[in-house]
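quick one, 293 residues, struct below
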Amino acid sequence: MWPKVLILRERAEGESGLNSKFKSSQDSKGCCGKRSELAIIFQKRPGLVAYIACGDPDLDTSRKVALAAIHAGADVVELGVPFSDPVADGPVIQRASERALKHGTSLSGVLALAKQLREQSNAGLIIFSYLNPILQFGMEKFCDAAAQAGVDGALVTDLPVEEAGDYLKAMRAHKLAPVFLAAPTSTDQRLRDVARHSRGFAYAISRTGITGARQELAADARSLVERLRAHTKLPIAVGFGVSTPEQFAEVGTFANAAVIGSAIVQRVEQNPGHEAMAVSEFLSSLTGTAQPA
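---
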C-alpha cells in the first residue's frame, strides 16, 4: 500500500489560516491526475524524501528503485537529472551522473520516467536538476512537460531564489511547486525569500559543502531549521549527510522530513542486479523509527 501524502491547495488571495485540503489525484483522475500547487503534510515524523540518480544504471532500474523507495515509506521522490558538472554533489552522486550520461540519460528521459511513476503511485514527485539541462530543454517547455507528466514540482540546485523570476513565473503558470534550498550561511533575507517562494516544502541543507553521507549530523541543521521556521509554515526537510537510522530519527526531533540521497545512490552502485531490493531494505530500516506526525 502506497504511503498517503496529503496535499494542500495554495492559499487564495485574502484567505486566512491554513489552506483548504486538496483532494488527491486518486480522488479524481486516478494516480495520473494533475495536482494543484502542493504543500505536503508528512504522515510520519520524520517524513522521507528519497533522491534517485535517474539513469544509473538505466531508467528502468531507476523506476524500480523509485517504486521500492515509495513502498518502503518515501513520501516524496526527487528524480535527479544527471549533469556533467554537478558541483554540489559528492563523489557518489558524481559517479552516478557520469554513468547515467554515458547511457544517454536526459531530462526528457527523466520526465518520461516521472510519467510512468505517476501512473503507478500518488507519492510526491520532484524533478531535481541543475539549471543548465532545463535551459537547454526550454523553461516553458520544461514546465509544460513536467505538468503533463504529473510531476509536483522542481528543485533547481544552482538557481538562487533572487534570480528565479522567470522560473517562478513559468512554474506558477503550470501549477508546479518550486522548492528552494536554505543553507546555514543563508542570510535572514534569503531565508525570507526561500520561505516566500517555496511550495510543497522547504529544503534545509544541514551543512555547507557537497552531498554525501556523514557520521553525524551537523550542529548547524537544528539552528537553520529554527531560523527558517520563523518565516514559513511549510514542512521543512533536512538533507545533505543523513544516512543512518539514528540521524534519521534525530532529524524528526526538529524537522518534518529527512532527505536521503547519497546513501540510496551508493546502494544502487554497490548492488548491481539487486538495486531495488537493497534500497528497500535500507529505507525500511530508517522509516521503522518514524513516529506519527
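The mean pLDDT is 85.
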